[in-house]
Amino acid sequence: MGMQTHINEDRNMSEHLYNPDILQKLDFSKSPAVFKPKISAANPGAEWMVVRPLQRADFDKGFLQLLSQLTSTGNITRKQFDERFTQMKMSGGHYVTVIEDTRSSKIIGAATLTVEQKFIHNCSLRGRLEDVVVNDTYRGQQLGKLIVVTVSLLAQQLGCYKMSLDCKDKLIKFYETLGYKLEPGNSNAMNMRFEDPS
Ligand code: 16G
User: Fold this and answer.
1) How far apart are CA 110 and CA 51, in angstroms?
2) Is 17 a domain residue?
3) What pLDDT is stored for residue 17 in this prediction?
4) Are 59 and 75 in contact (CB under 8 A)?
5) Closest CA to ligand 1's atom 2
6) Confidence class of residue 196 from pLDDT cuts 50, 70 and 90?
7) InterPro entries of this UniProt entry (predicted)?
8) Is 178 in the pocket of ligand 1 (CB under 6 A)?
9) Of ligand 1's atoms, which has the minimum distance to the CA of residue 130?
10) Is residue 185 part of a domain?
11) Ligand 1 centroid, distance to 164 Cα (angstroms)
């Protein structure tokens, strides 16, 4: 009985947010991004690196600490993390994707594809690129490119008619090298903030 519980807990912790097989099949030659040397989600360039969907165990692998390099994350408890994971998995359309350094069991990169269901474009889907972050001590290993191209190809694979993002002005050049464009007359991001700024 105790043993059984243990097995279930282990299985639970390695549960993926979405089916990992789809990442292995992405065709990186479809992306305008230039990789030197050539890498992909299936072959990220080092045997200690893996690109995969978020797992429950990532709470203990520094996933939230990595996200806090991007913006405020607050103090998220394991219970909150687990509940959000379950909600995302049940509702579908949330493709939180990570890069793990398996030597240290640390999450070193992340990006999310959020898929919106639409009526327009013949009941199409729209992808949004969200929460892109790479641990800056891993610079120069093309990890930003790798994680963004991975979720962008995933959006295409899932049938999205376009993929959008908003970012800091200084990142525009980076995203342009990956195929994102400022469309003339159609490239503004506007926000209305409801959060208490404190
Ligand atoms: C950036 C991110 C966005 C993230 C936001 C957080 C990308 C491409 N864009 O715009 O996904 O949610 O920063 O900033 O990663 P905020 O805390 O000011 O909303």
Assistant:
1) 9
2) yes
3) 98
4) no
5) 131
6) confident
7) Acyl_CoA_acyltransferase, GNAT_dom, GNPNAT1-like
8) no
9) 11
10) no
11) 12
Tell me the pLDDT band of 121, cut-offs 50, 70 and 90.
very high
User: Computed from CA positions of residues 129, 135, 136, 142, in that sequence, does the dihedral angle turn out positive or negative?
Assistant: negative
- C-alpha pair distances (Å), 23 with each of 41, 85, 132, 197: 6, 19, 17, 38
Overall pTM > 0.85: yes
Which tokens belong to 118?
Answer: 């639409």
Interacting residues of 194 by C-beta distance below 8 A, sequence separation 6+? none
Which position has the token pair 């912790």?
13
1: pLDDT strictly greater than 50: no
User: Which DSSP string corresponds to 143-161?
Assistant: HHHHHHHHHHHHHHHTTEE
Which tokens in the block code for residue 150? Answer: 């991975």
Q: With beta carbons less than 8 A apart as the criterion, state whether 155 and 18 touch.
A: no
> Which CATH number belongs to the domain containing residue 126 in this structure?
3.40.630.30
- The predicted-structure confidence for 32-70, as pLDDT tens digits, reads as follows 999 999 999 999 999 999 999 999 999 999 999 999 999
Q: Are 154 and 18 in contact (CB under 8 A)?
A: no
Instruction: Tell me the best of 66, 70, 151, 175 to mutate to test the pocket of ligand 1, counting ligand atoms within 8 Å of each CB and taking the most.
Output: 70
Intra-chain end-to-end CA distance of the chain, in Å: 48
Domain that holds residue 157: 10-177
Residue 22 within any structural domain of the chain? yes
